[in-house]
Amino acid sequence: MSDRSIYAQLRVREIIHAAGTKTRLGGTLMLPEAVDAMVQASRAFVKMEELQERAGQIIAQVTGAESGYVTSGAAAGLLQAVAACMAGTDPARIHRLPDSTGMPNQVIMQKGHRMDYDKPARTAGAEMVEIGFAGETMPWELEAALNERTAAVLHAANRPAGPLSLPQVVEIAHRHKVPVIVDAAGALPPPENLRRFIAEGADLVAFSGGKALRGPQASGVLAGNADLIRSVLLQHQDMDVREATWTYRTDLRTGILKGRPFHGIGRPLKVGKEEIVGLLVALQAYVSRDHAADARRWQKQVSSLNNGVNQIKGLKGTILQEHTGRPVPVVRVDVDSTVAGMTAVEIVTRLEEGEPAICVDDVPVLDGGFLINPFSLQDGELELILGQLEKILKRVTV
Ligand SMILES: *Cc1c(COP(=O)(O)O)cnc(C)c1O
């Protein structure tokens, strides 16, 4: 029985994922050692807070941060990061969220960084404050926006230059004692980014576990300041506990905590022991991976794809870098619809409806093109993509 046959049993079509690590296409494939680790984790019990504490130490080692936490994804990590900046460890504030009345609840974001991943911040109860224009923000705009109601500045990694850089944002925000959260969900590779944003002064950084890290789809890494991670923990763990026997009861006695909170805003974002273990194994494997070998493989794949594409009538291939700013080469295919006899939209649709079904990156589809990304391609799939394209269009006969 093939390892993919479960989808056949469920009568759900399998696809070739030629669009990178997109969540809507299943992210990417997990590392086999991470899958094995999840199976092993499913066979025994641990106290979840002890597992998360150990995860925090490992994340700290890998990222250079003080502490860390495993989340159910980068988006979940952003929600929990914003909630931590608003509520801290005050049980009354933790209980009130997502009603953020009476606490700092403004999250500043540069317009050039704004996208629909501000929903996690708003779900936590924050109000977005936008500064700057699409291509430019002035330092004084950030200065002017910071006030006693500011909870955090949310900074998107991998944005084009123009808006304020992370070091600039950190310098200004920290002068006003406001933490900076970085959305680094799609910022790997390069692997250096695991440490870079922390080194540049970010207080909390969220990475996706299900993209380049090749951990479980529903996992993420939150790395950063120990006090903020403490708040994340308090707002995330199952709080069906008794004060007299609670793991953190000493903090109640010493007054570090005013009281035991109820279930927090993070409680619906459950992370299983299997996800935590799978993520940790994937994270450690990513650190010791041969990234140069990955780059060479992608380069070889895109150059064969590009050559193949350029032999098909009506198509023109060009090798570019991924539009998200990651150093992953992709093939941009431009369609000359008068020669091809069909538009890029039709080709993308036929690829998806074909056998095998192929999903390419359709970001530039209305400009008459699409992208083929090698990140999630398995052996032999490159040939299948070229074969399908040739079948859909006619091969140039010279
Ligand atoms: C993918 C992505 C997210 C969400 O990450 P998940 O791990 O899927 O929750 C957030 N922000 C950006 C920029 C992303 O690319």
UniProtKB/TrEMBL annotation:
Domain of life: Bacteria
Annotated positions of the N6-(pyridoxal phosphate)lysine modification: 211
Record GO terms (molecular function): L-seryl-tRNA(Sec) selenium transferase activity; transaminase activity
Pfam families documented for this protein: SelA
Xref: InterPro entries: PyrdxlP-dep_Trfase (IPR015424), PyrdxlP-dep_Trfase_major (IPR015421), SelA-like (IPR018319)
Gene3D superfamilies: Type I PLP-dependent aspartate aminotransferase-like (Major domain)
Family designation: Belongs to the SelA family.
Name of the protein described by the UniProt record: Aminotransferase class V-fold PLP-dependent enzyme
Cofactor (UniProt): pyridoxal 5'-phosphate
Protein species of origin: Candidatus Segetimicrobium genomatis
